[in-house]
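Quick start: read one record
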Amino acid sequence: MTKGEPKSDRIPRGFKPDPYSYHEEIELEIETLTNMGQGLGRHNGWVVMVRYALPGERIQARVYRNEKNFSEADLVAVLDPSPDRVEAPCPVFGQCGGCQYQHFAYDAQLEWKTRQVKELLWHMARIETAVLPAIPSPKQYGYRSKLTPHFPKPKKDRPIQIGFLRQGSRSSYVEIESCPLVSEEMNEKLTEARAEIRQNHEHTPYKKGATLLIREHLDGVTTNPKAIIREKVGGLLFSFPAGEFFQNNPSILESFTQYVGQKASEGGVRNLVDAYCGSGLFCLTAAAYFKDAVGIEVSDFSVQYAIENARANNLTNTRFVLGDAASIFSQVNFKGDDTAVIIDPPRKGASEDFLNQLIVFGPQRIVYVSCNPATQMRDLRILIEGKYEIEEVQPFDLFPQTKHLECVVTLTKTATAPATSLS
């Protein structure tokens, strides 16, 4: 059985006592999972969401919040467990906010993540289309190459606790001795960093706390965010500062990037634009499929590393440019009709201004990669209104044991779309 940390019986300020009193206990059956990883059931017709409860289970729950249309509750006991419930290997699972699914059999995690993409497509964009089964991570544990544990402002006469925010809290931390999502080498480095910080605390006071970096790469493990590290994806080598963004599940990166490149190249298009290129991951791994490939990035720092990565891998059909958000396609010198565009925006999704520029540019194909399917579905509505249609939806499980996933949606320009470009 998995349960969250017990909460104080003191009634929080602003608690709404309807339809349940604070810490009232109820029994309910869990029907489904939300995209936030919570079990969802109905009690007397009222929606109740419960962390760590699984579909098909009958549970006892303790209400701690009433919202306008639903309540939230802690899991007190599993009365009838799901056959997909397993023992979580992490001793602080249910307290640490990093994982949501360690108690959930991996095959079932994949099935529900696939289902949630399909449900989001309908609920957020009113799109009913097939969703391919989520592609599993080759590693279910020990897969993360980056860990960023934190500690808050130290208190007098108390040891510094290094870990992650407690589930449901914005200020309380859970001490992490060892994280099963990273390698033994990274956990050893975490132990060393903890000992060093505690030993040197009196000489190096941390007035506001700090965030640590532990990054595994091709040549070892580093804690220096400015260190230049290497990562290998397929036959290509990428160099970048350890503190910069780079997909952090190396075990799935080759198949992930191959799929994106192949989908972009279908239909005979000859040119590629990677519109959020970073240090060049998708642009460089897909370059072999195209005559010309252009990476656009708003960070001058990232463009420099993308150029260097192209040079180091002897890729002569690529170029990288610093993009202006107001006219991001102005430096693309080929027409949209013979072009595919890959976009991989941050979690907040693409801006409406960017999407409108993309529609005007008019690429034949768009491959939209997202770590947040909810904002991705929102953006799809704009692209579909701009005369694009969905060809394929493929989730990838880059983050086993968590609610997170990557989703790749391939779109093609419809026959009725105008043939326009910015060139």
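Residues 22 and 143 are 40 Å apart (CA to CA).
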